[in-house]
Amino acid sequence: MTKRKSTVNPLVVEMTMTAILAALIILMTFTPIGYIPIGPVKMTLMTLPVAVGSIVLGARSGIILGSIFGLTSFYTCFGMDFVGMGLLSINPFLTFVMCFVPRVLCGYLPALIYKAISKNGTKRTMLAIPVAGASVAIINTVLFLGSMWLFFGNSLSDVVGVAIDNIFALFALFAGTNGLIEIAVNIVVGTAICKPLTIAKKKLI
To answer: CATH no. for residue 171?
Structure first.
């Protein structure tokens, strides 16, 4: 028996799923789970829909979703995030770069990681999903905090309200707690979502 050829356009499937995930990111921006205040900084669960899109749909969708994530992050600098407001008053352009570029990369690079690991069979695909999911959170945390340090340096002391000698310790604490939570969520929840979606996508197209 020959397999019936699918009449579903893969691009339509990709764009439809991307639109749904993009709507979720925008919705999360205005709910408590989007940006969770932890002291002077915020933990975000926005990396989860970005991870799902990057893994299931590929680099193009990852870039789109990462860009939307970055734009919502920049949006919070206008009255929703006091640290972002402070950095915005110092240099709006660098604040935009800090918010936007790391998020585009955290949508794009994990798609490449997933593709590289999963290309040699089903077992590797099952490994690739949690690895790529974790990489979204890692890339986001490292590049965002790194950009903040690189662009604003000593200015962070006044903005955050912490002595400059303690800024690095604050970053390390944030990366070691909030970053690990984001990684765990992406691995556990992201894998639970991505596995069935990946199978369903293959059957559909």
So the answer is: 1.10.1760.20
pTM for this model (two decimals): 0.88
For residue 43, which phi and psi values (nearest 5 degrees)? -90, 145
Distances (CA, A) of 75 to 27, 46, 70, 107: 13, 14, 9, 18
Distance of CA 73 to CAs 89, 104, 121, 134, 152, Å? Answer: 16, 12, 37, 20, 17
Condensed to tens digits (0 to 9), the pLDDT of residues 103-113 reads 999 999 999 99
* Chain segment 17-43, per-residue pLDDT in tens: 999 999 999 999 888 778 877 666 677
pLDDT bracket for residue 149 (50, 70, 90): confident
Q: What is the 3-state secondary structure (H, E, C) of 127-193?
A: HHHHHHHHHHHHHHHHHHHHHHHHHHCCHHHHHHCCCHHHHHHHHHHHHHHHHHHHHHHHHHHHHHH
The answer to whether position 1 is within a domain reads: no
Joined together, the tokens standing for residue 74 give 């920049």
The answer on pLDDT for 157 being more than 90 is no
* Owning domain of residue 194: 10-204
Element (H, E) at 202: helix 164-204
Contact 122, 195 (CB under 8 A): no
